[in-house]
Amino acid sequence: AGVTDTHSVAIDWGDGTRGDSAVVTRDATDPTLVRFTASHIYVDDDPTTSSSDIYTMTMIASDDDTGRADEEEEIRVADLAPVVTVGTIAGTTENVGITMIASFTDAGTADSHTAVVDWGDGTPVHPVAIAASAGGGSLTANHTYGDNGVFTVTVTVTDDDSLSGSDSTTVTVVNTVPMVAIDRSGTTTFDGVQTVVGSQGVPTPFSGSVSDPGSDDVTVTWAYGDALSDSATNLVNPPATDPAVSPSIQPRSFTSSVTHAYARPCLYTATMSAVDDDGGAPRDYVASDGRARVS
Q: Shortest CA distance to 278 belongs to which of 244, 252, 254, 251?
């Protein structure tokens, strides 16, 4: 009621902070009415594990004659989820690692956080260490894909009040074809060409090696040059066939050995080829122009 009094307002925000910077003004039409404004940012909805909590704000108004009035008000502060951004991931090939870099922000600057990444290839969701900063953080993780495909990489960050934010990007993994090499250790050179020598009606042995950096089933075909051939599939995880997107990392090498009896003497071109379950198809020949001499 003291229209000539001056006033100050202190505010205890209920979160351990106190403010003395409220702007006090006297109402223009009612000089007995004193108004004040103040602002505050709650950095956490303490305690943790709850999606929102109530703070008790206490306002203390004083005049220049030491008069004082207190008022309390409850304020509900709700948690906000982290906002996650995943960077672009460069494409790669099977069994060659990639690096994922992500960052996040959180309006609750006092929150703590955990993060996981789902690589999108059927492998378990993987926890990721966070380099934390006030109001956010960054994280980096590495991964190797055992099979080709287009994979969705999703990063999820969860705060200590159990709210989560996620972001995703895709990474393209290109198939790598198998490598094949025929064993030429038992060949004989005719006219400068390495040649396998066999006899009519007698099984002639052929052997070769196959390597594949991907987790793939590989079918090896030997074409003997006389319109006949043999094929066999080497499974990466027998007896099951490899799924379209294999979650495993299983580069491997194996040997393919066959025999073939030629019905008549001739000069043949024998071919070894290998096709993985993603369509990669290299081939090799017995010699530079491919010969299997049968006498």
A: 244
Pairing of strands 136-143, 7-12: unpaired
| Residue-wise DSSP of 78-133 | E----EEEEPP---EETT--EEEEEEEE-S-TT--EEEEEE-SSSSPPEEE--EEE
Whether the predicted pLDDT of 153 surpasses 80? yes
Look up residue 84 and give its two tokens: 């996650």
Residue 249 vs residue 117, higher pLDDT: 117
Q: Whose structure tokens read 């009519």?
A: 200
pLDDT tens per residue, range 55-111: 888 888 887 777 788 888 888 887 889 999 999 999 999 999 999 999 999 988 888
First to last CA, the chain: 125
Look at residue 290 in the predicted model and tell me its pLDDT. 37
Nearest CA to 115 among 165, 73, 77, 71? 165
Q: How far apart are CA 35 and CA 279, in angstroms?
A: 77
Enumerate the β-bridge partners of residue 258: 206
Q: pTM of the full predicted structure?
A: 0.76
Residue 195 sits at φ, ψ, to 5 deg, of -135, 135
Question: Are 53 and 76 in contact, with CB atoms under 8 Å apart?
Answer: yes
d(CA 251, CA 195): 31
The pLDDT of residue 286 is above 50: no
